[in-house]
Amino acid sequence: MPVGAATGASWLAYFRALKIGDAARVAPIDKLSIVLVAIFGVVFLGEKLNMMNWLGVSLIAAGALLLALF
After folding, report:
1. What is the rounded distance in angstroms from the CA atom of residue 57 to the CA atom of residue 9?
2. 7/1 Cα distance (integer angstroms)
């Protein structure tokens, strides 16, 4: 149940951000959640990511930042 509540709250926050902000800037920031999940998994859960995984996380982060900036 707590995961469902967190998911619902994140969607509400996302749609609120879309309502008050530019979608071209809101959507890339939302995609950074994938990067945060990977980092939290490594730091708090002891996940092991190989070089290919880190490359993917880095590309997602770089793409989101590029979209947000330009």
Report:
1. 24
2. 10
Amino acid identity at 52? M
Each residue's pLDDT tens digit, 26-66: 888 888 888 999 999 999 999 999 999 999 999 999 998 88
Torsion angle, CA of 46/49/54/55, rounded to 10 degrees? -170
The letter for the amino acid at 54 is W
pTM for the complete prediction?
0.71
Looking at beta carbons, which pairs linking 54-60 to residues 24 or more positions away fall under 8 Å? 60/31, 60/32, 60/34, 60/35
* Range 1-17 average pLDDT: 83
Cβ atoms of residues 57 and 36 within 8 Å: no
Boundaries of domain holding 38: 2-69
Residue 6 tokens read as 């967190």
Q: What's the structural domain count of the chain?
A: 1
